[in-house]
């Protein structure tokens, strides 16, 4: 393998990659949850994909505005010290519960 041609992923690649992984995992479990819809199931993944891409717009804009900061630092800069720390705590607990 030629390692001279390898390129590193930047922040935007990681955001889109993780978003697509989350959507893909959600689509595997979606068919059982929406089975009562019937033949209109084909429309729901398309709508969810469009909505997921729309939610990426503010994330990309924040990454452009604060290129060297993490999500936790961005929260503290935008929301202030107290609300930023509270939002970071909620995000941490959400991630912890999702991993459990």
TrEMBL record:
Major location (coarse): membrane
Membrane-crossing residue ranges in chain numbering: 12-30, 42-62
One cellular-component annotation, GO: membrane
Keyword Translocase: no
One GO process term, biological-process aspect: spore germination
Keyword annotations from UniProtKB, A to Z: Germination, Membrane, Transmembrane, Transmembrane helix, Transport
Localization per Swiss-Prot or TrEMBL: Membrane
Membrane protein topology class: Multi-pass membrane protein
Family: Belongs to the amino acid-polyamine-organocation (APC) superfamily. Spore germination protein (SGP) (TC 2.A.3.9) family.
Protein name: Spore germination protein
Source lineage: Bacteria, Bacillati, Bacillota, Bacilli, Bacillales
């Amino acid at each position: 393998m030629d390692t001279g041609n390898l390129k590193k992923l930047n922040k935007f690649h990681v955001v889109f990659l993780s978003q697509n992984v989350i959507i893909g995992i959600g689509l595997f479990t979606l068919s059982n949850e929406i089975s009562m819809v019937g033949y209109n199931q084909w429309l729901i993944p398309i709508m969810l994909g469009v909505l997921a891409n729309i939610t990426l717009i503010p994330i990309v804009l924040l990454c452009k505005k604060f290129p060297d900061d993490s999500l936790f630092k961005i929260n503290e800069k935008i929301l202030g010290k107290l609300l930023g720390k509270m939002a970071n705590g909620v995000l941490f607990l959400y991630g912890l519960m999702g991993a459990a």
